Amino acid sequence: MVLGILTAIAACPAIIGTTEAVRQGQKQSAKERHRGLKTKLFVGCSTASRNGKEVDGSEVVLSDNKLYLAMPSEAFPDGCEDDHPFAGYFLPYPDQDWGRAGEGFVSTISDEPPQLNWIYVDEDTHEVKYGDRAQSEPHVIGPWDVTKIDKRVTLEGWEGFMAVRYGPKEWALYFDRDDNGLKGILDDEMKKVEVVLVRREMKQAKPQDDDDET
User: Other CB atoms closer than 10 Å to residue 25's CB: what's the count?
Assistant: First the structure.
């Protein structure tokens, strides 16, 4: 009996260690599923100004190799027809390994035919753009990641995103890489507000029954 008790006590650390390893593996699997889930992207802005209220809640769209905020305007009350809503996820960038710091970031740029592009920040203009590997590689391609609790998007370990006003109801997405309000990048007269990027799971369509297939 004593030997059995001693054996059980000796085995406890191994059992605890195995259980913890399983839990960590489950957490890692859940994290990977979350990161690989195709989501939409929305802007959040807590600034209590007219510009902040205007951009808050706007959906991010892709158009002409740049990321913009979709919002109704006099010219496009239903949104610009050339805009493609962001629909993307995290993906390892070729020949890059940032470890736990993050991965690359992709989005569809068309539905028919389905096509993906990399999301990146222009090294010179700090605009958030999209393009193929050749277009993105000379610029800031990652690491992209999310905050631990709210899962907001980060780049290079922090949230430096800004919305910049080009005109009435026209806002583009930038990354304030130098953390100076884009000083030296934009004219001082241009309106800009700090924003966060929020991922939202896309609506799931009803699955088709096998009997419906012909």
Answer: 10
**Contact criterion met (CB below 8 Å) for 142 and 98:** yes
Tell me: cis bond preceding 113? Omega within 30 of 0 counts.
yes
Token pair for residue 100? 């736990």
3-state DSSP call for residue 5?
Answer: helix
Which regions of 64-143 does DSSP assign to beta strands (E)?
66-70, 84-85, 88-91, 104-110, 115-121, 128-131
Tens-place pLDDT, residues 11-34: 444 444 444 544 544 455 555 667
| Rounded CA separation 75/67 (Å) | 19
Q: Give residue 23's Cα distance to chain centre.
A: 26
CA–CA separation, 133 vs 131, rounded Å?
Answer: 7
**pTM as predicted:** 0.81
Chain-centroid distance of CA 9 in Å reads 47
